[in-house]
Amino acid sequence: MIIKKDKSEIQNFLVDAANYKGDCEAVYFPESESDILIILALARNLKQRITIAGNGTGLTGARVPEGGIVISMNKMNNILEINTAEKYAIVQPAVILREFQNEVTANRLFYPPDPTEQDCFIGASIATNASGAKSFKYGPTRNYVIELRIILSNGEVLNLKRGNNFADGNLLNLISESGSQIEISLPDYLMPNTKHSAGYFTKINMDAIDLFIGSEGTLGIITEAKLKLLEIPENLISGILFFNNEADALDFVDDARSQSIKHRMAKDENNINARGIEFFDFYSLQFLKEDYPKINDNHKAAIWFEQEINSESEEFLFDKWMSLVEKYNADIDNSWFAMDKIELEKFKNFRHAVSSKVSEFVAQKGVRKVGTDTAVPVEHFRDYYFEMKKDVAANNLNYICYGHIGDCHLHLNMLPQNADELITAKSLYARFCARVVELGGTISAEHGVGKMKRDYLFNMYGKKNILEMARIKKILDPNLLLGIGNIFDEKFLIN
Ligand SMILES: Cc1cc2nc3c(=O)[nH]c(=O)nc-3n(C[C@H](O)[C@H](O)[C@H](O)COP(=O)(O)OP(=O)(O)OC[C@H]3O[C@@H](n4cnc5c(N)ncnc54)[C@H](O)[C@@H]3O)c2cc1C
Q1: What is the pLDDT at residue 36?
Q2: Is there an atom of ligand 1 within 6 Å of 126 CB?
Q3: Strand ranges (DSSP E) for 355-447?
Q4: pLDDT in tens, 301-315
Q5: What's the 55 CA to ligand 1 centre distance in angstroms?
């Protein structure tokens, strides 16, 4: 097993995509579960905390160590099986999502989770319960995890199979591979009824596997996952629609969203039934227009949508979408529609370009982005969006806003130019998080909490419930080794 200690060789592990920085003594690169067991035994003896590293695309500091050692999963990167007959895959944690998606597609199957950043590891996407554009129809990563193999910090191994181990009310009983029993009484806090990825999952009679999905490297090390695959859709229709008036774009979304949800519930695939609806505000389009010259300054917003179709429904659905496009006054001459693979790929790149452009801008200008990952219930979405925009404009901050509007989940990225603006941006961020809590939403819909958002999670759930999360952690990680500082401050672990 490789172990690296030289700072010049481990720099990549001391930072993540949010530019959150940390430090550690060494990075271990296990190639097997036996290697992991050796590292854990050593760490227990030396009382060294452990941070598990995925591919470093996280935006919350969750994979950034604050002392101790890092376990990089890099070497455990094999797709072990793709079963086309039973539609599942078995993977090691460091399989890159993009490569997995390609392999699954080559097998004429479909894995819906599609975080915009496809260079993440599958293990980490499970640890953060990642989502993407298609989560509007298909939900988050959680919905596709059917089995997990997890090593706890004391070396016990859990094999969790969805459907095999439910809590009895709030009592969860886990049995490890060696036969040890772990009894957990689950917390009773209510999670928001929105897309949500912040803090431990808890529900009466919940499935044991769900506690570990989204636990951000704090409860155990995922060494293998079995994932559900679906039949690949025959074809897709997609559009990038430009609007000269933002209100028209928002009305278009309301209509497309409510029709899609209605038809999805009725399992009516031959009607408007988007699998993703994404939003780009005026400033996002300004960022993109250099690379996409068809964007002009009259375009105040754009919407990307995608729907699955087949040869029978193709024409009918195209007409259905066109009538929505006309109804809400999209700039049809400059909007784009796609039904073939090359064009669809270009559309995917368009969606990715805005977040990459922001990262480029931030790196070039040396500014720090302060970005929301909040989601609110649909009835509050517009008010919340307008409030945010008004507050940011009143403070003369540069920003761009884009994201998963189907799920009422936008990333408003403030781009402060100096230290004073950074202070203002942070105080607005805190205000936005407080507001979503009032509205019954979440402070993090997909990126997780990590080290950067734990104060906001504290405000969302309150001390009692944060202490409940710490209690769960202490049961599963009694040596307090894994992911210390993620989700909640380590002070909650002391008593
Ligand atoms: C441009 C951009 C766009 C993004 N878009 C999205 C998006 O649309 N949706 C979304 O959900 N996220 C998005 N993200 C965030 C990020 O890609 C996801 O959080 C992703 O899941 C992180 O994967 P990673 O491999 O980089 O993990 P890392 O950042 O390295 O780690 C993330 C967490 O996973 C834990 N972890 C890693 N491996 C394991 C393991 N084997 N066992 C237990 N814990 C483990 C780590 O300890 C850490 O807590 C985006 C990021 C960027 C930079």
Answers
A1: 98
A2: no
A3: 370-371, 399-404, 409-414
A4: 999 999 999 988 889
A5: 7
Nearest CA to ligand 1 atom 52: 117
Q: What is the pLDDT of residue 326?
A: 95
Instruction: Establish whether residue 212 lines the binding site of ligand 1, counting it when its CB lies within 6 angstroms of any ligand atom.
Output: no
Residue nearest to atom 16 of ligand 1 (CA): 58
pLDDT value for 15: 93
Q: Which residues contact 150 (CB under 8 A, 6 or more apart)?
A: 157, 158, 160, 212, 219, 220, 221, 222, 223
Give the Cβ contact number of residue 483 at 10 Å. 26
**Dihedral of the alpha carbons of 443, 446, 450, 454, in degrees to the nearest 10:** 10
Residues 6+ apart with CB under 8 A from 68: 24, 25, 43, 48, 49, 50, 51, 481, 484
Among 250, 351, 233, which Cα is nearest to 300's? 250
Atom of ligand 1 lying closest to residue 17 CA: 53
Q: What is the pLDDT of residue 463?
A: 96
Is the C-beta atom of 148 inside 6 A of ligand 1? Answer: no
Q: What is the pLDDT of residue 440?
A: 97
Give 226's DSSP letter.
E
Is the CB of 477 within 6 Å of ligand 1? no
* CA dihedral sign of residues 483, 487, 491, 495: negative
d(CA 494, CA 208): 26
384's tokens: 């919340």
Residues of the chain with pLDDT under 70: 495
What are the backbone angles phi and psi of residue 370, rounded to the nearest 5°?
Answer: -120, 105
* Ligand 1 mutation target, pool 447, 451, 476, most atoms within 8 A of CB: 447
For residue 51, the ligand 1 atom closest to its alpha carbon is 47
Q: Which two tokens stand for residue 353?
A: 């370009």
User: Buried b vs exposed e over 261-277: b needs ≥16 C-beta within 10 Å?
Assistant: bebbeeeeeebbbbbbb
Domains, in order of start, for the chain: 2-72 (3.30.43.10), 79-231 (3.30.465.10), 235-438 (3.40.462.40)
Whole-structure pTM value:
0.95
AA identity, residue 77 = N
Percent of the chain with pLDDT over 70: 100
Torsion angle of the four alpha carbons 273, 259, 303, 382, in this order, in degrees rounded to the nearest 10: -140
Longest dimension (CA), the chain: 67
Residue 352: predicted pLDDT: 84
* pLDDT at 361 (0 to 100): 83
Q: What is the DSSP letter of 233?
A: P
Contact 309, 235 (CB under 8 A): yes
